[in-house]
Amino acid sequence: MNSSSSTMSFVLSQKGKPLLVMDDYVFRLNKITNTTKYYRCENRDCTATAHTDLNNVLLKVNANHSHVIEPEKKEIRIFKQIVKERATKESTPIPKIYEEESTKNDFKILDYCYFTVSKRDDSLNKARRLETPPIPDSQIFGIPYLYTRTIENEEFLCVDKFIKRKTRILLFASNEQLKVLFQNSIVLMDGTFSTCPKIFDQVFTIHSIKYEQSFICGIGLLPDRKKSTYRFVFEELKGLAVRMNLVFSPSTIITDFEHSLAEAIISEVILSDFKLRKENQKNIISFSFQVATILVATSILLKPCTDKYNTLTYLVVIVVMKVFV
Known about the structure:
Blueprint: E1 8-12, E2 18-22, E3 25-32, E4 36-41, E5 49-53, E6 58-62, H1 71-89, H2 94-102, H3 107-117, H4 121-131, E7 157-164, E8 167-172, H5 175-182, E9 186-192, E10 202-210, E11 213-222, H6 227-243, E12 252-254, H7 259-274, H8 278-301, H9 303-309, H10 312-324
Parallel strand pairs: 9-12
Antiparallel strand pairs: 1-2, 2-3, 3-4, 4-5, 5-6, 7-8, 8-11, 9-10, 10-11
Helix pairs in contact: 1-2, 1-3, 1-4, 6-7, 7-8, 8-10
């Protein structure tokens, strides 16, 4: 075979090793010296070889292959390489990557690809995990850029600040979620402590009502349950609203009866919005705790029907609106 007329390209194996593709034959890298790379045909029974310099310029080729050419193998290797690259660089589900890339390939090789590639989900998941940062053991850790963006490459990590030394707050929300939150007057808040990364104290969620449905508008990782922490969250939400030329000023906030959160709501939402004088603060606090007590009592009374109909959210909203009116 004339080396000058040979078509040459390179692909990667599943282990990341370079493969030389020449005229649809695949060569594996056998060894490297100071000046030359030595390749041999991937078929173990074939004695065909090729040599290139360190810049991958072809120097010599012995193309006496002892087997027929299989051009599908090259296409399948390229397919595998693309799938693996996307699996390690994107957060797209692996089955979806298969589906998207399969539509770009020749349908004649898709059946073969299905049996040879789809069975490698485990290896692709392993490769993806190797690219995933290890779970940190403190709140001082870096967040890769990929994990701060949405699938559409929009900002998702909207708050990442240390409020004290080694005490960090993270708040995740897209611009669309924040817009829904700031444009609605009813806000629901809740936290979970049992299902939370060990280095944080709780996963704090913020919801809003739209189309008579509850939509999640923010997910926060909070270091504790202190009033100052909740106040910091409200201050950050107000700042985000200003940045979007909107206002965070809900007329109704529904949450469970947590003392620190209730005080933060009163000081950051009620008192800041209406700028009440100090002599009226005690009455407002008393009134707010009455509202919270009504919410708790209502949730207890409605517990049997919530298990069956899941109507607690809407019934509680009605109660709160009547109280504030």
